[in-house]
């Protein structure tokens, strides 16, 4: 989410995947994040909605409340929703929903107050910023734009999906330790990545369709092959043939 080009940025130094790598929704720890930021983005595909958002460390909330109480007792005026003291650390969270159950996604955003500009770091009197914009990719960014505006007062700003895909892959390979691995016969083996010798590489994206992309650098890529048959197609065929719901 953004409101100006000068908004604080993520500090990716020493970023790493937090917790068990087999967890359903692992997070990315950002131990050196010093700015209070508001980040929420969506990929609304034909089968799944993928959502990523930023939050501060959980124990920082207690400190926030203590600082508010101190300021109130001393009679200091509120300085808006921005803080004058540093926020140490945070994490990126990743959640997914079936696109057919988009109302569950909207309820989740509302319950976390992610549409109010500061996510979980907002206070109880948070209100939606009528100018709030969420970056989104996928066909659903057009299909559900009116629904997001009606339910949450948010505008969806569609980004080029291929650009975001390549930028995201480069981010993970460069910034996140132990992100690349091989998986054979149930065994995972991590691969050491030399960020100075990363390119070129072949990126295969499997969604509702499949795209094979040759990545030659930041912002430099070419789709070399692909097919319309992907995960969404196999999922649908599997449900029709087996009568399974999941």
Automatic annotation (TrEMBL):
UniProt entry tagged with the keyword ATP-binding: yes
Entry keyword annotation includes Nucleotide-binding: yes
One Pfam family here: Fumble
Alphabetical GO biological process terms: coenzyme A biosynthetic process
Transmembrane segments: none
InterPro entries, A to Z: ATPase_NBD, Type_II_PanK
GO molecular function, one term: ATP binding
Keywords: ATP-binding, Coenzyme A biosynthesis, Nucleotide-binding
Name of the molecule in the record: Pantothenate kinase
Species: Glycine max
């Amino acid at each position: 989410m953004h409101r100006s080009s000068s908004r604080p940025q993520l500090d990716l130094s020493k970023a790493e995947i937090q917790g068990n790598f087999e967890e359903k929704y692992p997070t990315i720890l950002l131990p050196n994040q010093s700015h209070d930021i508001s980040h929420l983005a969506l990929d609304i595909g034909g089968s799944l909605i993928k959502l990523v958002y930023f939050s501060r460390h959980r124990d920082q909330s207690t400190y926030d409340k203590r600082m508010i109480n101190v300021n109130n007792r001393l009679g200091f005026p509120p300085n808006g929703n921005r803080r004058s003291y540093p926020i140490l650390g945070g994490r990126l969270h990743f959640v997914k929903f079936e696109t057919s159950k988009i109302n569950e996604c909207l309820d989740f955003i509302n319950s976390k107050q992610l549409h109010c500009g500061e996510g979980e770091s907002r206070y109880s009197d948070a209100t939606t910023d009528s100018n709030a914009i969420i970056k989104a990719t996928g066909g659903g960014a057009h299909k559900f734009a009116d629904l997001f505006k009606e339910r949450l007062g948010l505008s969806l700003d569609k980004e080029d999906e291929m650009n975001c895909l390549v930028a995201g892959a480069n981010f993970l390979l460069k910034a996140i330790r132990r992100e690349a691995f091989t998986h054979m016969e149930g065994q995972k083996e991590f691969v050491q990545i030399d960020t100075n010798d990363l390119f070129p590489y072949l990126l295969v994206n499997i969604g509702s369709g499949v795209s094979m992309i040759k990545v030659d650098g930041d912002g430099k890529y070419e789709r070399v092959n692909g097919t319309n048959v992907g995960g969404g197609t196999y999922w649908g065929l599997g449900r029709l043939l087996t009568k399974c719901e999941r």
